[in-house]
Write a structure and sequence with these properties.
alpha/beta; TIM Barrel; 18% strand; binds iron/sulfur cluster
Length: 388
């Protein structure tokens, strides 16, 4: 562990202590923003102290072949009036990726809505990213991988993530009849075609947690490399009875104790704002121990806490408010949103459009929202911590 790592661990534990002790959340947010800027400046000056970089999220389209009960996107739950009339052209997407790379973006995440329903656009975006030397990853519901594998296998995804929400009955209850087998076939096909770092994204809810151990053997047989576990959070649209509480976090760990050693690693991802009730509950119980923690060097340091050795299993805690600083998300019509909050609006407003604003202007606009979003982040987390 380096001195820099220790410094960042101390800093983040300090944030949690401050919030738990009732320090004004606005002051805590200011300290966090200053620290994050320092991290980015360090990268700019000396190159490699903490590798961090901007991320561009891309919604290739606003259509999906599924209608999952917990979907975070507002337009899944509302009559979708989306028309592709104003969509970006192929040249617009190419220009965007050139500008993004020149500006300093290192990672492109194809996150929505279902990218394999628009293969022509997705291919152009990926080819441009490949030519410009960007890392790129894709998130899909997996059902269309078998029909699209011939072009997918030409790309070197840093991660291919497929959503699985439980064993067959649970997954199909959430994602629609027959979709478990389709997603499983997608995983198998991706493995056979040589796609690397195949990751299952599991969203823990109140009612699917007990099916995790029944689901995993199927996925391992199909070629799973990594498991990424998230905890469903509240939006204006999804069903609140799905949102897990702290005891579900422990049940999740329990479900993973016999997981196959063929899985390269498992992360249980907790986000300070979205999962504030679970994070605060664990913090108040003393679950997070500084001496066990490590730093995950991604956009900015987040914290890792070991749970099991084999397969390697970690709680991954993000408590730095990176929304509006570490990148943004661009939709098919060019609308720019942050990574989370804006997705819960309908109709989607965003804060800019790539047709009118340069990449640099969009980043500046994004940062003007950072003070408010970071304060909102810590207010939510503090409220949960002080509720006890
Ligand atoms: S597959 Fe993803 S985008 Fe489509 S409805 Fe389900 S959660 Fe939403």
């Amino acid at each position: 562990m380096t001195e820099t790592h220790n410094e960042f661990i101390d800093f983040q534990f300090g944030i949690m202590d401050d919030l738990a002790n009732g320090r004004d959340f606005r002051k805590v947010a200011k300290d966090a923003r200053d620290k994050i800027k320092e991290i980015y400046d360090t990268r700019n000056n000396s190159g490699d102290k903490i590798p961090s970089g901007l991320e561009l999220g891309v919604d290739v389209n606003r259509i999906c072949n599924l209608k999952c009960s917990h979907c975070y996107l507002a337009d899944t739950h509302i009559q979708n009036e989306y028309s592709n009339q104003d969509d970006l052209t192929s040249q617009d997407w190419k220009n965007l990726i050139y500008d993004a790379k020149d500006f300093g973006v290192r990672t492109l995440s194809i996150v929505g809505k279902e990218p394999l329903l628009s293969p022509d656009t997705t291919k152009i975006i990926l080819e441009t990213a490949e030519n410009r030397g960007l890392n790129y990853r894709i998130l899909t519901n997996g059902t269309l991988i078998p029909s699209e594998i011939n072009w997918l296998k030409q790309f070197n995804f840093s991660f291919t993530s497929i959503s699985f929400d439980g064993d067959e009955p649970n997954h199909d209850k959430i994602r629609g009849q027959g979709n478990y087998q389709k997603a499983l076939e997608g995983l198998r096909t991706a493995k056979k075609a040589g796609l690397e770092n195949l990751t299952a994204n599991f969203t823990t809810m109140t009612h699917n947690v007990n099916s995790l151990d029944k689901m995993l053997p199927d996925l391992v047989n199909a070629g799973l490399d990594y498991l990424s576990v998230g905890f469903c959070f509240e939006t204006s649209y999804n069903d609140l009875s799905l949102i897990p509480t702290q005891d579900i976090f422990y049940k999740t760990i329990d479900q993973l104790k016999n997981a196959s050693k063929n899985i390269k690693s498992i992360t249980l991802n907790l986000m300070g704002k979205e999962n504030s009730e679970i994070v605060a509950g664990l913090w108040n119980q003393g679950y997070f121990k500084k001496q066990n923690s490590a730093i995950l060097e991604d956009f900015a340091p987040s914290l890792l806490f070991p749970i099991n050795d084999s397969p390697k299993t970690f709680a991954h805690l993000t408590i730095l408010p990176l929304v509006n600083y570490s990148g943004f998300r661009i939709g098919p019509e060019g609308i720019v949103t942050d990574f989370c909050e804006d997705l819960m609006q309908h109709p989607l407003k965003g804060f800019g459009n790539i047709k009118k604003d340069s990449f640099a202007e969009l980043y500046e606009k994004s940062k003007t929202r950072w003070k408010e979003s970071s304060e909102n982040y810590y207010q939510t987390l503090q409220n949960s911590l002080l509720r006890k």
